[in-house]
Amino acid sequence: MTAVSHEKIKNKLKPNSKIATASIILVLTTLITLTALNTQENQDDQGFNRADLMFMNMMIVHHNQAIEMAEMAENRTENENILELSNNISKAQREENRQMTKWMQNQGFEPGNHHRMAGMASEQQMQQLRENNGTEFNHLFAKLMIEHHQGGIAMAEQFHQTGKNTELKQMQQQMIDAQTEEIKKMRKWQREDQL
């Protein structure tokens, strides 16, 4: 093979080598970028987005009223159904508030006051509840708590779609399940005159 032939071959290979090198660089750059994006996405999954923080702030306020309503029952009724239910509501929602407050504080936020939300009783309704005892209290409690739970379920369902944090999503589903079941119980007591 002549020297000219060697030179022609080298010249033909050079452009191909440049293309190959550029292709390799492009592939490596793409892989590095995708790895970085995946890592960031995994880190974000462990955190909270704006919808998560908004939900927690609103739900803490929402829960506070349900807890207040539930704790009225101890001194206002002897109905075992209402006493057991109110105890369960108070315990569950206090624990959920404790956890949500901790999550918010870890993100640098403090829960704040919020306007009255879906299902929450008005101050006039709360005062009526405070002023009633016995059967009257039981009926009003069930009515207001059903409405309160319906509002809470609607909030949990809405933010379940827009939130990010896995643990909070699990808590939201637990709220939905528990409060749906409690509504069924209260409606049954209303129908069967067990209040």
Automatic annotation (TrEMBL):
The keyword Coiled coil does not apply. It comes from the Archaea. The keyword Mitochondrion does not apply. This is DUF305 domain-containing protein. The chain crosses the membrane at residues 20-37. Gene3D superfamilies: 1.20.1260.10. Keywords: Membrane, Transmembrane, Transmembrane helix. Residues 52-189 form the DUF305 domain. Signal peptide: none annotated.
